[in-house]
Specification:
- About 35% of the residues lie in helices and about 25% in strands.
- With about 325 residues, the protein is α/β, with parallel strands linked by helices.
- The protein folds into 2 domains: about 160 residues, Rossmann fold (3-Layer(aba) Sandwich); about 130 residues, Riboflavin kinase-like (Elongation Factor Tu (Ef-tu), domain 3, Beta Barrel), CATH 2.40.30.30.
- Strands 1-4-3-2-5-6 form a 6-stranded parallel beta sheet, with helices on both faces. The protein has a 6-stranded antiparallel beta barrel with strand order 9-10-13-12-11-14. Strands 7-8 form a two-stranded antiparallel sheet.
- Helix 6 packs across helix 7 and helix 8 runs antiparallel to helix 9.
- The protein is elongated.
């Protein structure tokens, strides 16, 4: 999948007669995947490049002053877009200039003059342009001027309610990973870069990879059984989310120093069947099973004994009821 940053890169990429869609697509949940898959299928049917136009920063960060916690960072979304078969992703920076751009100007420029679209597919409630004034009716009007068609993808409902990134974010934060997974159409995942830690796990015989999550939302503190994607390889692992109370003091609760829970979280994963250097690599964790809360132990020996029990518990869970 080509990744193009901004209008200038897009102009020189040679894209023409595209089938395009537009959105943040945070989470790439089942509703998003419906829109994106339709874009890919229409592109294949028309022998045209399928293109997603997305944003490097969440528009709500500019509109409301504070961006929401992301389910999937831009880097994570790009991986998911690629897996769906899209030919190109165009990344626009949502700033005050873009925020104030009239919907007509935006549609003419991006879908008409830059992508030379033949079809644009919007999500059922997608709005664009200054103040969200752009909708399907306006887009069809612009399409008649610029030579493209425009359609809405149907809404995706689950238990009578429309799937949304907000609902998924809330489910992840309260630890209802099964509910979030139903809306995502896949397990809850986080993408992080492996960074240098204090190497304490190695001294315990349980080496861990420490992750920088790029501000992605994560489940509550605890120990989880996970599937770990390292490149194309899949491994099983144990992930701890928290502040490691056995070794570290709890984060300050003073409002003057407290930023957020996430600012103090450590995300560490021990791969059960892997040895090697992961520093600097992006790895993806898929949360399969919550094992327990994060606990404080009296010392290293008690912690190591519990880790062995955690592994046995996860392996038994993987075998299932029939064992």
């Amino acid at each position: 999948m080509k990744v193009l940053h901004g209008i200038s890169e897009c102009r020189t990429a040679g894209l023409a007669r595209c089938v395009a869609t537009l959105g943040v697509f945070d989470g790439v949940h089942i509703g998003h995947r419906h829109v994106l898959t339709e874009t890919v299928l229409y592109g294949q049917e028309r022998r045209a490049p399928s293109v997603v136009v997305t944003f490097g920063t969440h528009p709500k960060g500019v509109i409301n002053g504070t961006p929401p916690q992301l389910i999937t960072s831009l880097r994570h979304r790009l991986r998911l877009f690629d897996a769906l078969g899209l030919d190109a992703a165009v990344i626009l920076e949502f700033d005050e200039t873009l925020r104030s751009t009239p919907a007509r100007d935006f549609a003419r420029e991006v879908f008409g003059h830059v992508l030379h679209s033949q079809l644009v597919i919007l999500g059922c409630d997608t709005r664009f342009g200054r103040g969200g004034e752009g909708d399907l009716t306006l887009l069809r009007e612009i399409g008649r001027e610029c030579g493209f068609d425009a359609i809405n993808a149907d809404a995706v409902m689950l238990s009578g309610t429309k799937v949304s990134s907000t609902r998924i974010r809330q489910s992840v934060l309260r630890g209802d990973l099964a509910d979030a997974a139903r809306m995502l159409g896949r397990p809850v995942t986080i993408l992080g870069t492996v960074v240098e830690g204090d190497r304490r796990g190695r001294t315990l015989g349980w080496p861990t990879a420490n992750l920088d999550l790029h501000h992605e939302v994560r489940p509550p503190h605890g120990v989880y059984g996970v599937e770990v994607l390292v490149g194309q390889a899949r491994h099983l692992g144990l992930c701890n989310i928290g502040y490691r109370p056995t070794f570290d003091a709890p984060p300050a609760s003073n409002p003057e120093t407290w930023v957020s829970r996430d600012a103090f979280d450590r995300i560490e994963v021990h791969l059960l069947d892997f040895s090697g250097d992961l520093y600097g690599r992006d790895i993806e964790l898929r949360f399969l099973h919550r094992i327990r809360d994060e606990l404080k132990f009296s010392g290293k020996n008690e912690l190591v004994a519990q880790l062995a029990r955690d592994r046995a518990h996860f392996e038994e869970w993987l075998r299932g009821p029939s064992g």
